[in-house]
Design brief:
This protein has 7 helices and 5 strands. The protein is α/β, with parallel strands linked by helices. It has a 5-stranded mixed β-sheet with strand order 2-1-3-4-5, with helices on both faces. Strand 3, helix 5 and strand 4 form a beta-alpha-beta unit. Helix 2 packs parallel to helix 5 and helix 5 runs parallel beside helix 6.
Length: about 180
């Protein structure tokens, strides 16, 4: 009898591809023993269009003790109107694309559950994603309780963000997160 392979949907294949891109971002992160290495991708799903990667980020990429989701959002929010138009060109709507409107069409792919509390005092990533009014958050793996008890996914669900636990790369995402840790 020939081995059977698991059948996947086009959406599952897309999730896999974007979580893998987020893992590539996590690999760029400088490991430290007191924080996770996380990668994040912001993907717009425009009507009648293929998904568009708007921004990428990883932990500690920007100055300060910054997290992947906050960095990807900050980089996206700092795009000029020309840069934004080039990302979503051709733009089929009459008005010029506006960052706040595009965020409503964004799926966030992150290797680790967005934080719900920061010991550094910086804003939590779950709160930033809620404020940005993103559509969905696809998460590679739940944040382990190594540093704090994370409730980011529940916080986003409670705020109306659709949360999807992508089940294909949990171990890879956890290994990436804990890179540099002695656990």
């Amino acid at each position: 009898m020939a081995p059977t392979s698991k059948s996947t949907t086009p959406e599952e294949d897309e999730h896999d591809s974007f979580v893998r891109q987020a893992l590539e971002q996590a690999a760029l992160c400088e490991p430290v023993p007191t924080a996770f290495c996380v990668g994040c991708i912001l993907v717009a799903r425009l009507p009648d269009s293929e998904p568009i990667v708007l921004s990428k980020g990883f932990s500690r990429e920007l100055p300060g003790n910054t997290h992947a989701e906050a960095n990807a959002l900050a980089k996206f929010e700092n795009l000029s109107s020309t840069q934004l138009q080039s990302l979503v060109s051709p733009w089929s709507w009459e008005a010029v694309p506006v960052i706040d409107d595009l965020l409503l069409l964004v799926d966030v792919y992150t290797t680790l559950e967005p934080c719900s509390v920061r010991t550094s005092g910086l804003p939590a990533c779950a709160d930033a994603l809620i404020r940005a009014r993103i559509r969905r958050c696809i998460i590679g793996v739940r944040e382990p309780d190594d540093f704090v008890k994370c409730e980011g996914a529940q916080k986003m669900k409670d705020a109306g963000v659709e949360v999807i636990w992508y089940g294909g790369l949990e171990q890879e995402c956890l290994d990436a997160a804990r890179r540099g840790h002695h656990i």
